[in-house]
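so my prof wants the structure for this chain in the tokens format not the other one, which i didnt know existed until like an hour ago. anyway here's the sequence
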Amino acid sequence: TELANNYAKKADLILAVGTRFEEEETAIWLDGEIFSVPPTKIIQIDINPIEIGKNYPVELGLIGDAKLSLASINKEIRDILKEKPVKRGTKEELKSKKEEWFNKLKPFINSDKKPINPRRLLYALNRYLPENGIIVLDPSWARIGILQQFGSPGLDRCYIAGGVLPIGWSTASSLGVGVGRRDSRVISIIGDGGFLMTIQSLLTAKEYELPITYIIINNKSYNALDVLQKVYFGKSIGSKFENPLSSEDVSPNYSEIAKAFHIPSRRVEEPNEIEEAIQESLTQEGPFVLDLVSDPEGSKLIRSAPVTWSYFWSDLRKKRKQQ
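here's what i got, hopefully its the right format
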């Protein structure tokens, strides 16, 4: 989030627990975008000694289990605070900044525009997600959107793939989660491009009547590729699901496809139908497909680092025009 990035930029010291400082969480290792080493110092805790200092030099490396290491650190901090209390007010400041951040999202969350802004879907999902519901996020906008809006729903209830970003992952991996956690409702959130890559998973989900709700953020394209192609090459080829000559929309109706797999489904085009559709999907015993027709521009990200849709949609374009 923008808030977290801004705090990291100002940090004198970062305590990094179980993080490998990958390209995503560091803005592709661009110096100064998230933090700079130096002047920021890093204490890194990891159970694997190979990770210590692999991508960033550390002031101190601690090899050990995260839980045990943090428990030891907490004990030391309590002893120090008894002798030297610290200045209060940081929590209050952080709470205020978090409210500012969520206020930025409100216009999107409450939007009645069509096609639907996907942030409205995520907000509704947060309200109706069962206490034991499990979210499986594809490495697309859905993953960033969820983490920005309400974070992880709880222990062992959020599964994400990152790294090289294997889109289509959540549709297939939900099968494994559904088999292992039949007492929970599994919510797979995925873009339509990723869904098409592993659509055969629907057959298995139906064969075993797995408790999976597939929510497709359907912007009728490989939206990420569409945006990046326009930025780097000034045009998009093969990323929108349309006839290249006539611009006719040829995007599939995923609700109808689901019915062909004998799976109940619903196509949502009206913003005021989202809550009802989510609740309907959660009452099912087996799989359910929710096809949400969404606005591709609603998938813009809001972050301070440059590797974001905000950057690709606006800042870089401006720079190229100036050149």
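also thought this was worth mentioning. The chain has a mean pLDDT of 87.
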